[in-house]
Amino acid sequence: MTWPQTQQELQMRVPQLHQHECHLWHISLCTPDMAHSLPTECLSDEEKTRAAKFLRPEARQQFVMTRHALRSLLGAYLNTTPEKIPLQANQFGKPSLPVSFASLYFNVTHSGQRGLIAITRQGEVGVDIEQQRKMKDLLGMASMIFCPEDLRVWQELPVAEQMPAFYRAWTGKEAMAKALGCGLTIDLKGLRVDFTHEAQTQFLEMDFPPGTIHHWHLAQRNVVPGYCAALAIRGSPLETIDLAFDTQPVRTPGNAA
Ligand SMILES: CC(C)(COP(=O)(O)OP(=O)(O)OC[C@H]1O[C@@H](n2cnc3c(N)ncnc32)[C@H](O)[C@@H]1OP(=O)(O)O)[C@@H](O)C(=O)NCCC(=O)NCCS
């Protein structure tokens, strides 16, 4: 099967979404042969204009392919054509559906050659994926996201553990910030997550906006080696089901399959 598959093919592969579930769709964005024929037909005029403004072809490809996947998936869940999905955005840019159209929550993330789309009926959701890269100033980056107490815990980790722990913290915090809808306008130091253990699930109680206690379910997700991802959902714990948007093997240099 090629990428993108037809809407009809996708429709047949979308399972029923139960109230206690979150569907996490995995998308491979590494299809160099598509760079000149990106699937823009279901994008709105505004999205096409945005796509045309990207200076880096890779960034344009990431945006177009995940937006195409998002519209196709929402179309399949809601049994409508992808171009008719009325996407709106809050003041910080978080896309959503008008409540009058459907009570379906979703969030999108992309990094390097991977994209993720989380879809649930339960409540606000945020997802983040990061390709792990060695950083020149890891301590400087850590100082930007950790409060003093967490920074001390992080610095006491064995050196080899520090980079994966940093990415666990970063994706967990960013997934929370994206679920809240404010993105990086919020001080990440105030969003405290446990980053010391691999692939774990946490239940957080958060006073945000101040005076409103909400319960959150935060889970680290193993995606593919070299990437770190996290998913945050408002409400009680629910089952996350991993699904492949594309059925082609990932094509990277040295893996020509
Ligand atoms: C949201 C944000 C954290 C994304 O960071 P990132 O690591 O570069 O990107 P990710 O791949 O994880 O996520 C990008 C996707 O998140 C979604 N998104 C955008 N803004 C969002 C927000 N405020 N909250 C949740 N999700 C958001 C979009 O679907 C976006 O995908 P798209 O660009 O293909 O449409 C960052 O852009 C941010 O902090 N934005 C808010 C800051 C702001 O006010 N910007 C003004 C623009 S209106």
Structure description:
This protein has a single domain (17-244), classed as 4'-phosphopantetheinyl transferase domain (Ribosomal Protein L22, Chain A), CATH 3.90.470.20. With 257 residues, it is α+β, with helices and mostly antiparallel strands. A four-stranded mixed β-sheet has the order 4-5-1-10, covered by helices on one side. A four-stranded antiparallel β-sheet has the order 6-9-8-7. A hairpin with a 2-residue loop joins β4 and β5. It has helices at residues 7-13, 45-53, 57-78, 138-145, 148-155, 159-180, and strands spanning 21-28, 88-89, 95-96, 105-111, 114-120, 125-131, 201-207, 213-221, 227-234, 239-244. The chain is built from six helices and ten strands, in the order αβααβββββαααββββ. Residues 249-257 have low confidence and may be disordered. α1 (7-13) packs across α3. It binds coenzyme A. The site of coenzyme A has 21 residues, from α3, β4, β6 and α6.
Order of helices and strands: HEHHEEEEEHHHEEEE
Mean pLDDT: 88
Computed CA radius of gyration, to the nearest angstrom: 18 Å
Number of domains: 1
Please identify the structural class as seen in this structure. Answer: alpha+beta
Task: Enter the CATH topology name.
Answer: Ribosomal Protein L22, Chain A
**What ligands does this structure carry?**
coenzyme A
Task: Give a quick rundown of the structure.
The protein is built from 6 helices and 10 strands; from the N terminus they run H-E-H-H-E-E-E-E-E-H-H-H-E-E-E-E. By secondary structure, it is α+β, with helices and mostly antiparallel strands. The protein has one domain (17-244): Ribosomal Protein L22, Chain A.
